[in-house]
Design a protein that fits this description.
18 strands, eight-stranded mixed sheet, Dihydrodipicolinate Reductase, domain 2, alpha/beta, single chain, six-stranded parallel sheet, about 20% strand, about 25% helix, Rossmann fold
Length: about 475
């Protein structure tokens, strides 16, 4: 394993200042112009374009850009915008070549590729001593999440998963309040999303199309099984295919489940089960279902369990192969029946507000309704606030509530523990999220042994925990 270069040995330590409900990480010294932290963007369109731009705004020097496109043959969109915004950055199509040639010149990377490439690019960068900011879900498979968690410990580089709201003050404050006992001991949690907004329940692979001149399709496929190119896969709809994406759960749970998982100090679940759509909306070997409800059981206090229920998709949706999208099963129009918690849980809360996602945490003393896009939350009954001794802030606040700035400041301080969504948290969290998809695949209750990453009652889970890679691809580290 290669070791980080000496220029990455930044001075350690931070100065923390607390005022009211916020304080922020401050680098221990100011670096001059020659001490700029260099960053390479791996995946520079879509979310990748914003990750690179936000990294630059945080203080990084963007020295390298990488994507599976030929920059001389167009392609438009985020690829060209990123390259025009950072004209001096060296461009590569293959991140493996970039790290081999210039890894010692790169201090940090963002990994904003489709899910199936996350673990490969992130682990390769970590082995070069680069700090890694990797988009959610952290990995495509459960074993890959464990791999990155362990590799972060070995390499001691700064890491961060891109679940952006984790850096917001209001999320960190409500975590502190729940941990201080605002609603008592946690009994159950419910979380929901409006995803998918792309096709799912796809029964057959789309017909082969000519690969655009600008795209290196084989490189885009990476470690995934070979499939012919189709515009119904690339550039956006790949999330609805098991070989590339992780469905609605993988896309949104690392956002929506985050606060409650963090606040409850949840460990690995002991079991997970799922129900999902039937008939034309059922899951297929190719694609996740149109909706699913997933129940996790976590160890709680005094030998009791904490029930965590996840809801995604639309009950009235079916896949339309002519339109290649989800439509209403009754009239072929817009889908209108989101899969959300029952009324006895929501108590009339509008589950469609704020983009149609949220969570409810139920404790022995009351409930909290939380939405990561809002800096307010609802507590019932209001009497739980009477006499409650609000704790002082205990979680460091990110500079400007910005995950990219928190990442930057941790690198400059030389302290991997400063990022709050570091892989030691994000890895186990991602394992839990992805276990839901394992239950969707198997269609039955799955008992779970986190130490061995295996199911005592479902030996057939093994092939889903650790996926097979295409010839020529091996996860290093």
């Amino acid at each position: 394993m290669e070791t980080p270069t000496s220029r990455r040995h930044f001075v350690k330590g931070i100065a923390a200042a607390a005022a009211a409900y916020q304080f922020q990480v401050v680098p221990s010294r100011v670096f001059g112009a020659n001490d700029r932290i260099t960053l390479a963007g791996i995946g520079i369109s879509g979310k990748g374009a914003s990750d690179v731009a936000n990294s630059a705004a945080a203080g990084f020097q963007i020295t390298h850009l990488c994507d599976v496109v030929n920059p001389d043959k167009g392609g438009g969109g985020g690829w060209e915008k990123s390259r025009s915004s950072f004209k001096d950055a060296k461009f590569y199509q293959d991140w493996r070549e970039m790290l081999a040639a210039d890894g010692d010149k790169i201090d940090a990377v963002t990994v904003s590729t489709p899910d199936h490439v996350h673990a490969f690019a992130a682990s390769a960068a970590m082995l070069k001593g680069c700090a890694v900011y990797c988009q959610k879900p952290l990995t495509h498979s459960i074993s890959e999440a464990r791999h990155l968690t362990e590799l972060a410990t070995k390499t001691k580089v700064v890491t961060q998963m891109g679940n952006q709201a984790h850096a917001m003050n209001h999320m960190r404050r409500v975590v502190e309040l729940i941990r201080a006992g605002l609603i008592g001991d946690i009994l159950e949690i419910h979380a929901w999303t409006n995803r998918p907004i792309w096709p799912q329940a796809i029964p057959d692979w789309p017909e082969k199309e000519a690969v655009p001149d600008y795209l290196n399709w084989d490189l885009w496929l990476g470690p995934a099984p070979h499939h012919d190119y189709s515009s119904k896969i690339h550039p956006f709809k790949w999330r609805g295919y098991w070989d590339f994406g992780t469905g609605a759960l993988g896309d949104m749970a690392c956002h929506v489940m985050d606060m409650s998982f963090w606040a409850a100090n949840l460990t690995a679940p002991t079991s997970v089960s799922a129900i999902s759509a039937e008939g034309r909306g059922a899951k297929t070997k190719i694609s996740p279902p149109t909706w699913s409800t997933i129940e996790y059981q976590f160890p709680g206090k005094n030998g009791k369990s904490i029930k965590y229920v996840w809801y995604d998709g639309y009950k009235d949706a079916i896949f339309d192969p002519e339109k290649w999208q989800l439509v209403n099963k009754d009239d072929g129009g817009k889908i209108r029946e989101p899969n959300v918690p029952p009324i006895e849980i929501t108590e009339g809360l509008d589950t469609t507000e704020s983009k149609g996602y949220g969570s409810i945490i139920i404790g022995t003393h009351g409930k909290i309704w939380f939405n990561r896009s809002k800096d307010t939350w609802i507590v019932k009954p209001g009497s739980v606030m009477d006499g409650f001794n609000a704790p002082a802030p205990s979680i460091p606040r990110a500079r400007d509530e910005d995950p990219h700035k928190e990442f930057y400041d941790a690198i400059k301080a030389g302290d991997p523990n400063l990022t709050q969504s570091k892989f030691s948290y994000a890895g186990p969290f991602s394992e839990t999220v992805l276990l839901g998809n394992l239950a969707v695949h198997l269609g039955k209750k799955v008992e779970w042994d986190s130490k061995t990453l295996s199911s005592p009652n479902c030996p057939d889970a093994a092939e889903l925990v650790k996926r097979q890679y295409r010839d020529g691809w091996k996860l290093e580290g």
